[in-house]
Amino acid sequence: MAIATLLGFSLTSRAGDETSFKENTPVSTEKAPPLPIHTIEGVGGLVITPIAYLVNPGPAGTTLGLPSISTTYVNIGRKDLEAAAITETLFGRVELGYGIDRLGTGTLPDDVRAVTTISIPDHVILHNFNARVLALPENSFDLPLPAVTMGACYKYNEGISGINNDLGNLLNTIGYKSNNGVDFTLTATKAFSKVLGRPLIATAGLRWSEADQLGFFGFSNKYHTTFESNLAYGITDWLWLAVEFRGNADAYQHIANPNGGALVDRADNWWAVGVTTLLSRHATVTVGWGRLGPVINTTENKCLGFQVKYEL
Length: 312
Description:
By secondary structure, the chain is mostly beta strands. It has helices spanning 3-6, 108-116, 160-166, and strands spanning 37-38, 44-45, 68-76, 79-90, 94-104, 123-136, 147-157, 180-195, 198-211, 219-234, 239-246, 255-256, 262-264, 270-278, 283-291, 293-295, 298-300, 303-311.
């Protein structure tokens, strides 16, 4: 069942509406609703987890979909995150995306300076280069199958090597190996047209990654397998409520702060809830709250985020 059908619009499927596989079935050329939104890493999904539906693929038979752009801000307690993303879908089956993230490290430079007298930068920049393939459209073979995407994301952190050098390669002793790595994802999404009278979209996926804190603190030399999932519920045709879970592996060891707390704490799983408003067939606004647990040197369980996304 396509998002467009769930919303009550007579529009083209985003993820393989069953009618698009039947011969002589007219296909609308109107624009589908601007869902899914962008993750902070620059793929189609919610804010921290992907959805198997591709972004803005265009009507069936489209060779080159139109681009989609977004900007996101997250207040992570004593830290902050700014993200920008752009995606482009080809042939309705391949989504290419780029996301750039700036993480302000908050009190970490002060904590490091108090212990070592060394000054480190107050932010890191993470680049995300994404490619996803719709391996199985939803409802293929006239069966109630989920949409399935396979993805790869090359990540490059342009600040963490300098921080490690400033600290005399201290991060190497706790598991740091490189300033870049590749995440691999497998994501399945299924839409249900009537749950308490409204549409529900359920997603579950696996991720294989070497990253610590999504890559904001670099990459280890060992892949970990984590689980991620989300649910999105259409309260009305223009308002959606969503909840997300993202598993995070303990890629690094703990470094205690002699003054109390931690200089580097073990990563925990991330949770988020949010509300997305469809302003038009092109634009969405999302507001969310997150519980991230330890983020390097502080625990952040009261995070507020905001995203604006626009599809051409």
